Every structure is written in structure tokens, then in C-alpha cells.
């Protein structure tokens, strides 16, 4: 699985659609939505998703998405992304950055209500050493797939 993810994070594999010499039959062809995202933003899967999030949440107060760990800890970034698609489900203007548990719970419940499986928990997000950035990336990818593909 790590080998597949490394390939997915490779710009050349996604953009050109060509297999490198060392790629075997376990290569996973990207779906059209990711191909378009990578063409639009360039770079790796991670950086393209980061730029997608930054674009979706531009202008939202208390949001500065620079990574897939600390930028998401208070739940506001998740709520802002969902708000761009489902404004009636997320009362963004009334959310408080200090109410991390409330924000995260709202985001994860909203996602589940529209078909995004909660692969993260509030407890994981609130760990003292911060959330696992790869798990946050995976969840954000699920949001992207739900609304963009």
C-alpha cells in the first residue's frame, strides 16, 4: 500500500499517465477528478489537496491552512470546507475556535450525513501531540471525492 501511495504522490505518474520502468501491475490509475486537480495545482497529491483546501476556504475567518495537522486541530477548517458546499448545515459565523470538540463533532457528523465516512475521531484530533497528518489528508481526500468527483 505504501508503494501505491508513493506513486500517487508522484506528479509524473498522475500527470502523464505513463508508468515508470519500476512500476508493476499494482499501479493504481488516478481518477479523473484527481487528474484535473493535479493539472490545476501541480505538484504532489498532498500539495494539490492543500491548495484545493486553501482555495475553498479563502476569506473564511480564523482559517489559515498550511498543513494537514495543526491547521485542522480546532475543526474550523473542516467546517469551512463543508460550509462551502453545505452552508445550511454549518453555521460557520457562530463557530468559536476555542470550541474544538464542538467544531470537530459538527464537521464529522456533517460529513457522515452526506456520505463521508468518519475515518478520524475528535479524540485523535485533540491528541496532545496533534493529529496524524496522513489520516487528516485521507479524510480531506474523502471530502474531495464526495464533492468533486
UniProtKB/TrEMBL annotation:
<protein>
    <recommendedName>
        <fullName>Cytospin-A</fullName>
    </recommendedName>
</protein>
<comment type="function">
    <text>Involved in cytokinesis and spindle organization. May play a role in actin cytoskeleton organization and microtubule stabilization and hence required for proper cell adhesion and migration.</text>
</comment>
<dbReference type="InterPro" id="IPR036872">
    <property type="entry name" value="CH_dom_sf"/>
</dbReference>
<dbReference type="InterPro" id="IPR001715">
    <property type="entry name" value="CH_dom"/>
</dbReference>
<dbReference type="GO" id="GO:0005921">
    <property type="term" value="C:gap junction"/>
</dbReference>
<dbReference type="Pfam" id="PF00307">
    <property type="entry name" value="CH"/>
</dbReference>
<dbReference type="InterPro" id="IPR050540">
    <property type="entry name" value="F-actin_Monoox_Mical"/>
</dbReference>
<keyword id="KW-0131">Cell cycle</keyword>
<dbReference type="GO" id="GO:0005819">
    <property type="term" value="C:spindle"/>
</dbReference>
<keyword id="KW-0132">Cell division</keyword>
<dbReference type="GO" id="GO:0005737">
    <property type="term" value="C:cytoplasm"/>
</dbReference>
<keyword id="KW-0206">Cytoskeleton</keyword>
<feature type="domain" description="Calponin-homology (CH)">
    <location>
        <begin position="43"/>
        <end position="148"/>
    </location>
</feature>
<comment type="subunit">
    <text>May interact with both microtubules and actin cytoskeleton.</text>
</comment>
<keyword id="KW-0965">Cell junction</keyword>
<keyword id="KW-0175">Coiled coil</keyword>
<keyword id="KW-0963">Cytoplasm</keyword>
<keyword id="KW-0303">Gap junction</keyword>
<dbReference type="GO" id="GO:0051301">
    <property type="term" value="P:cell division"/>
</dbReference>
<comment type="similarity">
    <text>Belongs to the cytospin-A family.</text>
</comment>
Amino acid at each position: 500500500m505504501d508503494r501505491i501511495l508513493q506513486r500517487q504522490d508522484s506528479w509524473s505518474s498522475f500527470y502523464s499517465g505513463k508508468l515508470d520502468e519500476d512500476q508493476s501491475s499494482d499501479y493504481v490509475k488516478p481518477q479523473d477528478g484527481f487528474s484535473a486537480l493535479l493539472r490545476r495545482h501541480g505538484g504532489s497529491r498532498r500539495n494539490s489537496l492543500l491548495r484545493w483546501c486553501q482555495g475553498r476556504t479563502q476569506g473564511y475567518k480564523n482559517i489559515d491552512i498550511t498543513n494537514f495537522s495543526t491547521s485542522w486541530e480546532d475543526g474550523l477548517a473542516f467546517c469551512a470546507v463543508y460550509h462551502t458546499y453545505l452552508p445550511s448545515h454549518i453555521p460557520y459565523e457562530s463557530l468559536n475556535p476555542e470550541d474544538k470538540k464542538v467544531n470537530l463533532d459538527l464537521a464529522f457528523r456533517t460529513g457522515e450525513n452526506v456520505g463521508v465516512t468518519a475515518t478520524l475521531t475528535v479524540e485523535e484530533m485533540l491528541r496532545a501531540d496533534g493529529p496524524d497528518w496522513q489520516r487528516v489528508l485521507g479524510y480531506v481526500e474523502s471530502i474531495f471525492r464526495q464533492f468533486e468527483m
